[in-house]
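hey m, so remember when u said the tokens were messed up on ur end? i reran from scratch. heres the input so u can diff it against urs
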Amino acid sequence: MTDNRIDISVRVEQYVKLRDKIKEIETRHKEELKPYKDTLEKLNSVILQHLTQVGGESIRTQAGTAYVTEKKTASLADPQAFMDYVVTNSAWDLLDRKANVKAVTDYIDEHKAPPPGVNYSTTNMVGVRRS
């Protein structure tokens, strides 16, 4: 008959070591990629400058086609001013619609059920702190 018991101390030690190894590899990987990413960014600037100078949106070459794309971002410099504007002007289309997990959890704690229209679930995971 085999003994199916595990030594949890050994498993926690393995977990910490594996997590550290993953972090070490990710850090090394990030450092190793940095010069390549920097060079790619410089090449991007050179190609974009060329397209701007010739007044084009794309250029086809033997090596491939370069083209201008537009990346848009919208971060909040003043969240309160933004929300005041949205509420005052009923500009709800300026917001993304999603439930706030912390607020929903608090609501469930108080009302013993999620707010109408919200699917709520929890998943248990393991967290391990170094000793």
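this time it looks ok to me. The helical segments are 8-54, 79-88, 101-111. if urs says something different then somethings off w ur setup not the seq
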